[in-house]
Write a structure and sequence with these properties.
ten-stranded antiparallel sheet; 16% strand; alpha+beta; Catalase HpII,  Chain A, domain 1; 685 residues; Rossmann fold; six-stranded parallel sheet; binds CIS-heme D hydroxychlorin gamma-spirolactone
Length: 685
Amino acid sequence: MTEPKMDKGGATHQQADQRDETMTTAQGGPIADDQNSLTAGSRGPVLMEDHIMREKIFHFDHERIPERVVHARGYGVHGHFELTKAIPELSCADIFQREGEKTPLFARFSTVAGSKGSFDVARDVRGFAVKFYTGEGNWDLVGNNIPVFFIQDAIKFPDLVHSVKPAPDRNFPQAQSAHDNFWDFISLTPESIHTTLWTMSDRAIPRSLRFMEGFGVHTFRLVNADDKSHFVKFHWKPKQGLQSVVWNEALKINGADPDFHRRDMWAAIDSGDYPQWDLGIQVFDDDFADEFEFDILDPTKLIPEEQVPVQIIGTMTLDNTVDNFFAETEQVAFCTQNIVRGIDFTNDPLLQGRNFSYLDTQTKRLGGPNFTHIPINAPKCPMNHFQQDGHMAMHNPKGRANYEPNSWGDDGGPRENPEIGFTSYSERVQGDKQRTRSETFADHYSQARQFYVSQTKTEQNHIAAAYTFELSKCEHEHIRLRMLSHLMNVHDDLANAVAKGLGYTDMPDAAKPARKPITDLPASDALSILKNGPDSFAGRKLGLFLTDGADANLVNKIETTFTDAGAKVAIIAPHIAGVKLSDGTMKAADETIDGGPSVLFDAVALIFSANAGEELARNKPAQDFVSDAFAHAKFIAWTDASTPLFEAVGVAGKLDDGILKLNNDNVAGFLKMCEGLRYWARDAS
Ligand code: HDD
């Protein structure tokens, strides 16, 4: 017999060499016929003794495990973290000691509210969870793409999640917050208002998982070898820059490609365009914590980067897709309590509750306490303990000792090690046992206002439009008005814009704040997406719409110019077989007009032969291609042949500086324009 083979997904196969290619039962028995059940005669009943068919169907019946109660729809990929700045003075964590050292990791991005089969570009928070397989055990940084959270205390989490998920009687709406239950809960929970500013912003509809930030949200501790502690907040900064889509576009993307984000991640890694994020830390001490306007234990607040700068200490590179989605992405079990020596918790009540919840949920989801034996969850450093048995035990110690202390000497198994073992930071704790929320958590509007004033006008408009959209989906007026009463405490402009959008002329009374909001917090540029976009089109995608006879020189020049700049070019054509260019060469298509609407691309170019324009002007998907690109403020390149199509959709009279008539000499100029990603002046008008 050969040694058992272990694949990445964790299956072990004990197969004789000569049977490597032979299909077997799970018991290893070779199968002669996998097409037909065993029957009594060719038209007779199926026999109970058909152990092959019964085993196969039995296993199929058990293929599903409970989906995550939140963050069910996710996409995981492998990568590594490279330390660029050692921080031994701050933390003795092994991962932070040696510059240039790489630590393997697994990252899973997710939406929160939708079920596993929902669509990718829902308006939602995105999960941003990273499992570092460090030399001293696994560290899970289970964050989001938004630095604040809806609630301050974990005891409210089931209510928050119930409110956003489909209502229990009708089981809709799926994967969205635009409904009464959600806004009813939010409007009765003022601590959530700040986070809704973020979820109503374009942060909640990212263009790609590659183009969003990540945040550890809570304040954690870094502890050095002398047991000196600093507070820390963790940040992930995408090297690709920030970018989101607009709401009308998101709605259409979900129809055109419900897998938009996962396909984008898969394609980027598959083509060697590995996404990268810098890991940043905001480090501060007790003095800062005492002076700061808000409580650093309150997860509904952030610390502006202008107040505590983000120091970059390393880079995460995602460079490998999974071999098996179930084995890796589904079975990965993140737990906030997975920390390592040198990192510690704080008393943030949300974090403390999470530390209970994740272990509990993994036990249920993965069926028992041995989920740490599954390869994706197992540490990659040595692991020795006396935990034993249970469902699916796969690491079973040899020998007699399964307890300690014991006196079996060298055969006695693992021993404690005070030198490198985990010790908790010895924070002084005292107080009365009670159920109260600290007074220092009571300001719910100031940072919401700060977020709003930090946005560009375009982004402010999008926020107001999003509240208007969501509240318009609420059937009950008292819920809409209650939300308006909160927005009045955030900013008059926002409240007035939403009231106007909803069609109200009389404003309700403003909600009574638990603590008077601070109205003069300075704007923080770091909070805006548009102020932090990339200055290149690299990693973005041009939709190149062609017909037979399109100018070969121009087409080839566009392709080379954009791909040389690190962008992708997708060819859209009337037929999937492609088009014959003016020089007689064939150009294969990636999409047809029906399957490749402009919402799937960051910018578009229309290169038609002279006689194709009239026909396309009567083609509805072609019309939508142009009118959507125009409505979504995209840069558009065209030639004369597009004129009838422009006329058909009313764009001909509105040519603006985001629309460029293309020739062989200005392709580079078009690329330069596209580096702006969107022509926002059109959006405003
Ligand atoms: Fe959570 C999953 C992030 C609050 C309970 N959470 C989950 C995931 C992410 C987050 C990224 C998906 C992990 C993966 O990809 O498998 N959660 C957050 C953040 C929070 C937060 C950033 C606030 C700062 N979560 C939170 C609270 C509770 C939970 C307060 C419970 C009291 N979260 C869970 C969970 C999940 C989960 C039920 C569902 C599936 C899972 O854990 O593995 O335990």
